[in-house]
Every structure is written in C-alpha cells, then in structure tokens.
Design goal:
434 residues, 4-stranded parallel sheet, globular, disordered C terminus, binds iron/sulfur cluster
C-alpha cells in the first residue's frame, strides 16, 4: 500500500476525487507496495485502481487514461531500506550528535539507486528484490562496490555477512542490468592489489559496467570508528596514476575513460583537474566527479549573459577545498562584469576543519563569514549547503540566516545563475536579504 500526498488540480486523480491520505491498494490486480510498483504498473492506459479513501470507503476505479496524460498523484515519500553494514568510514558515523533525525538514517536502497542515482551496496538485496529489478528493468544501478575480493569487502563494510558482490553483479548483468560503480578508497584496505583486482573484475563486465569512480575516504573529527590510515598526498597521487593508466587503456579499447577520480582526489594530490573532454557525459557528477570542471564550463558559457555590475562588491563564500580554485573563476567574472569579487573561505564549525567541502558548510558558518560585512553589496553562498526545504545541516534555515546578514544573500550553483539577473539592480551599500 502507498499513500497519496498530493493531487494535482485538474488532473485525472482530482476528477476521481482522490484526495491526500488516500491509500492505493492495487493496480490491475497487482498489489502496490511502493513507488516503483506505482510508476511501473500505471504505465498502461487501461487501469483498474483499488483505493481506500480517508473516509474508509473502498473504491475500484476503472480508468481509460489518454496517452501521455499523468494521473496527477504524488505519493508520500517511501520508507527507505536501511543499511546492513557498519563501514568504518561511513559519513553518518562521522556526523556530530544532535542533528535532525533523518540525517542519521543509513539508506542502502536499490530503488533509490535506480530512481535518484544514490549509491547502494546491494548488501540487503533479497530474492524478491532481484525479481523486481529484472521485471522493472531497473538499469542502470549505482553500486558501491568498494572492493570485489570478498574478504576485503567484508572488512571494508564491517559486515561478515555481506554477499559476494561479484556474484550479485554477474547475476544482474545476466538479467540485462547495467551499473555504475564507485570505490571509496581506504589506504591499506582497498588500494594496491585489492584495487587492481577490483578494477580487473569490473572491467571484465565490459559495457555493462558503465563507469567506475575512485573516491578518497573522507573523515570528519567525529569518525570515531575509523582505525585505518588517512588519505594523504602520496596516496592520492598513486590513485591518480591508477586512474590515468586504466583510463588510457579504456580510452584505447572503449573510446571512453571508464575509470574516473573524484575532484577531491585531484585536490588532495595537488594535481590539475582535467578538462571537459575527460569526463564524457559526466555520468558520476553527482558523486563529485567532474563537478569543478563542469562549473568552470558553465561559467565560461554563461559569461556572455552577464550584465555590467561596475562598482559592486560581491562576496563569494566557499569551503577550504574550493578556495584555491576560485581566484581564476572570480577574475574572469570580474573582467566580464566590472564587479569586485571577494573570496571568503569558511571553516566548517560543525564537522571540524578536516571537512572542507563547500556543500557541507552550515548556517552558522555562513553567518560567521558574512556578519560584519556591510561593505558587500551582495553575497553568494553554495546552493548545495541548503536542502530543498531551505535548511542547512545545522538546522538553521536559509531565511533565518539571511535575516541576520547585512547584505542580500543568494544560494548559487555557478554564479551565473544569480548574477545574470542582477543587471537591473542598483548598487546597495547594505540591506536586508531579499
Ligand atoms: S554502506 Fe557503509 S557508508 Fe553506506 S550507509 Fe551503510 S555503513 Fe554507511
């Protein structure tokens, strides 16, 4: 059973008088257990939908849906499948206490892997899940492989009962499912021989393994389980050499690089980030692979849309990791617009100084960085640091943060998204956020 959260006005569902709170029980005689059933079983045009209204009335609707017309139903969010592992490097293990409860949920859900590109280890996959993956052709999946040698993977996931990932992937591939893989690299556990063996195994899946990303282990000051070595410049350089040699081979044999390093790996190694041609279709950009290069590209492409902003002073808040990469970008923006950009690198007060990602900055960091700066006409902060409800990881709201600051503040993904709309505004010395 799934429950209706919203109904679009004027939609088929609203004409049928389906309302929020309605339970959807079955479609064409098949039980509806989650959003996947709903999405796939309502793809037909002739539908028999069995519901229970909030009033308790059971109704069977017999619908002929015009081709392409949506039913207009939004479901309540699914309850996520919980993770069965206890990885030492788990980001959730590294969260400080006292944050809102949903942040501590360890999800490991093949459904979200297909629907949103969330990585899943597949450790909790049951026989019924395999059957659904095949029936609904959930491809590609995003799989946290970490290591293919079974013993190494058990250790990495801190789970002696973890299934053999090679057997699982072989079965999925035989059923027509493709996948993207990621390996979080923990020095001493899955670099060296384990890494080579894992890449050899994954490469052997041919075009069914669409890409693999190497991501350096990231720890916060709260990662109390972790006993391994931390990532350093030498480790990062060795990993990049592996990325390079496998990438060259894949380029020769498959005409695409296949193996990618996350941006963080390049930053840790002090190596220049590759250009746009390196990343193909940016298949793992959500995993931090190529996001800086993509940002540079979007800024370069958007330059011509930017208005003159002569004389305005614009603050740009970011984390320590992005700090060194910003001056070039901001110089270009300055030249194009005539505005003066000031880079403000903020330290993460919630996770500690080892956490340098801009997207993990919290509301208190933003306030500290911008408070007492009435000289700025405008400030841009990382849009990734706020969720879809406008809330930072420390529960501060964007609206609340903005109210405390003496200049208009905007979340921005690539500067252009905000600055292209600034042309009509006149310079202001100070003012409350809009
Ligand atoms: S698989 Fe590991 S890293 Fe992912 S949520 Fe579970 S314990 Fe955390």
């Amino acid at each position: 059973m799934v429950r209706v959260a919203r109904v679009s006005p004027g939609s088929i569902a609203s004409e049928l008088e389906i309302v929020p709170g309605t339970e959807i029980r079955s479609v064409n005689g098949r039980e509806i257990t989650d959003f996947l059933d709903w999405e796939f079983l309502t793809a037909d045009e002739a539908l028999e939908i069995e519901v229970r209204l909030p009033s308790g009335d059971d109704i069977l609707f017999d619908i002929e849906r015009p081709e392409g017309e949506s039913l207009g139903v939004e479901l309540e969010p699914p309850s996520v499948r919980r993770c069965a592992n206890r990885c030492e490097f788990c980001f959730i293990e590294g969260l400080p206490k006292g944050l809102r409860k949903p942040l501590y949920i360890r999800d490991d859900d093949y459904r979200l892997s297909f629907a949103y590109g969330n990585f899943a280890t597949l450790s909790n996959l049951k026989e019924r899940d395999f059957q659904r993956i095949f029936e609904y052709r959930l491809s590609p999946l995003y799989v946290s492989v970490h290591a293919t040698p079974w013993e190494a993977r058990k250790k990495l996931l801190n789970n002696p009962r973890v299934p053999n990932i090679l057997e699982q992937l072989t079965r999925l591939v035989a059923g027509g499912i493709r996948f993207h893989g990621q390996m979080v690299i923990v020095p001493g556990l899955n670099d060296g021989d384990v890494l080579e063996q894992s890449l050899t195994d994954l490469y052997a899946f041919g075009e069914n393994c669409l890409s693999v990303a190497l991501v350096p282990v990231g720890l916060t000051q709260f990662s109390h389980l972790y006993t391994g070595e931390s990532m350093n410049v030498d480790h990062a350089r060795r990993l990049l050499a592996t990325v390079e040699s496998w990438g060259e081979r894949a380029l020769r044999e498959r005409r695409e690089r296949w193996l990618y390093g996350s941006d963080e790996l390049y930053l840790l190694a002090g190596a220049p980030l590759p250009g746009i041609e390196h990343y193909g279709d940016f298949a793992q950009i959500e995993n931090g692979v190529g996001s800086v290069t993509s940002l540079r590209h979007r800024v370069a492409n958007g330059m011509s849309r930017l208005p003159r902003l002569d004389g305005r002073r614009i603050g740009v808040v970011t984390g320590k990791a992005m700090g060194p990469l910003m001056p070039d970008l901001l110089d270009g923006l300055s030249e194009q617009t005539g505005a003066r950009f000031e880079l403000i690198v903020a330290e993460n007060s919630l996770f500690g100084p080892t956490t340098t990602t801009a997207g993990l900055l919290v509301g208190a960091d933003i306030v500290r960085a911008l408070n007492g700066r009435p000289d700025l006409d405008l400030a841009l902060i990382p849009a990734e640091s706020i969720n879809e409800d406008g809330i930072f990881l420390d529960d501060a709201t964007f609206a609340g943060v903005r109210e405390q600051l003496p200049m208009p503040v905007f979340p921005s993904y690539d500067f252009v998204d905000v600055l292209e709309h600034e042309g009509s505004a006149t310079p202001v010395a100070a003012g409350r956020g809009r």
